[in-house]
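User: Sequence recovery, please. Input:
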């Protein structure tokens, strides 16, 4: 069973920037805390996550709508395509 602890960015104001998740629960089930670093996640200036060290995601690229278009993991790249359809009524 998971026993998760969430650490957020600190400062003078309340923050919703998640920095680290640790799991004191059962190691072989649920969330895998794959790192021992202080920051598991990084973000761009728009607040989009650009890396997740627990899942070996080294880069996430976003389009002008802030939707992910490419996710790069160790030895793997996933490309996402957004298709928009406009209909006149």
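Assistant: Recovered sequence (89 residues):
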């Amino acid at each position: 069973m998971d026993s998760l602890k969430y650490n957020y960015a600190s400062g003078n104001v309340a923050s919703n920037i998640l920095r680290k998740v640790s799991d004191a629960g059962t190691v072989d089930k649920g969330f895998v805390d794959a790192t021992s670093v202080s920051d598991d996640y990084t973000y761009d200036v728009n607040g989009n996550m650009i890396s997740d060290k627990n899942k070996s995601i080294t880069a996430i690229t976003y389009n002008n709508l802030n939707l992910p278009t490419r996710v790069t993991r160790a030895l793997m790249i996933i490309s996402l395509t957004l298709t928009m359809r406009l209909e006149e009524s």
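The chain is about 0% helix and 40% strand.
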